[in-house]
């Protein structure tokens, strides 16, 4: 909103257009008016006071006008229910804007699904194999990047040495700097290209792995539902069969050394019979953390 202010003094009057709400300080506006109108420095204080009073008066009038327009708009609504719905909507929007978003995010859903699958034990080995295959693919791509950059560096060095030998010192410093700048740009372009490829690979792996984990959890929950629907309290307890521990050990020359292992079953409780299978193993603890790489564990989604 633009308003016209008039400032009167002894020798005349000054007229200035002011944009409300004002975006600069009043003192700066006063200084600009004095510079434009060539006023005397002793008139600056009077002009500043007049501007402050004028802007304050116009701001109050503008606020009163906006308030009256809003009040008249509200009074035009004759139905009380419309007024209630209007303010209810405004209150909800204002409250929701300051509140946390409801519902779980994709990362939270994936974390929950991953936690359930890891602790269920049904696909831990497969999940670790898939993760290792993903890491292996990333490492291979990084190695390809390093090899290409190293090859490019050697080619640039050979090209520069060849040009120096051909011209035998006739190249100026500016020409050599231009060659260096061109080589640096080539390496930067190659590096950025490989960074983009690696990021794309990681994002694809992340998306595929998330979809696979969610599908695996759905199948696991569906299987549990089917088993619970066909089971009854009077049915005999089923003892879970554990796979041999050597299935997760890497197949190396050291794997020929047999580990000491003993399994037994215990019964707890006098009325509610609870059966537990316990296995005691004597082996190198680091072998249990080793996951052999197998190219068969690649997701085909």
UniProtKB/TrEMBL annotation:
A GO CC term assigned to this protein in UniProt: cytoplasm
Taxonomic lineage: Eukaryota, Metazoa, Ecdysozoa, Arthropoda, Hexapoda
Name of the protein in question: Protein C12orf4-like isoform X1
Taxonomic superkingdom: Eukaryota
